[in-house]
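Lab notebook, design round three. We kept the backbone fixed and only want residue identities now. Task for the bench partner: fill in a sequence for the structure below.
Input structure tokens:
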């Protein structure tokens, strides 16, 4: 008997390790200082900026998109907007997705140890709960078949994923702020 398992219709997670421009952190802190109230989106505690679509961060994110996803796409990928997240100690981001975009992602700026990782919920968890539970840990690892999956953050890491994927960020258990930039992008037809 010959057994082979293929993963069908998987969701793609793009990761890019970059050299973080020190001006990005300065920009994030300036935005916080200019509007310390911020907005509430998926954040529970902490701070999020209004959505923006210009300047240094726009250029940085657009360049990374161009050097990564754009290289494997036959269509133009355009940055729609971005916002800054400052997760203070004990804050986190609730499970959510990003309607009205095709790709979403995060760019990590300042990541203290134990400041919380991003996690993704399997979009098939409801339908495939028993199936996923039945697999051995090794098979789950080899096939990335989990109910949810954590991805560790580090400074300069850029992650992009389909906007339909529900994701959240675990609680910041450090004594320092975690700073990241989230974004949405779309495929131009």
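Proposed sequence:
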């Amino acid at each position: 008997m010959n057994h082979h398992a293929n993963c069908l219709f998987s969701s793609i997670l793009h990761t890019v390790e970059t050299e973080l421009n020190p001006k990005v952190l300065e920009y994030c802190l300036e935005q916080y200082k200019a509007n310390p109230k911020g907005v509430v989106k998926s954040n529970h505690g902490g701070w999020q900026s209004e959505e923006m679509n210009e300047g240094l961060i726009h250029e940085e994110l657009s360049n990374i998109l161009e050097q990564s996803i754009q290289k494997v796409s036959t269509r133009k990928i355009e940055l729609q907007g971005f916002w800054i997240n400052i997760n203070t100690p004990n804050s986190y981001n609730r499970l959510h997705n990003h309607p009205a975009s095709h790709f979403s992602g995060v760019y990590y700026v300042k990541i203290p140890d134990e400041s919380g990782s991003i996690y993704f919920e399997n979009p098939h968890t409801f339908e495939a709960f028993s199936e996923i539970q039945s697999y051995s840990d090794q098979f789950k690892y080899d096939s990335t078949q989990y109910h949810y999956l954590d991805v560790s953050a580090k400074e300069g890491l850029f992650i992009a994923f389909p906007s339909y994927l529900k994701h959240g960020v675990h609680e910041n258990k450090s004594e320092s702020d975690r700073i990241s930039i989230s974004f949405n992008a779309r495929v131009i037809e």
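Keep this in mind before ordering anything: The two ends are 46 Å apart (CA to CA).
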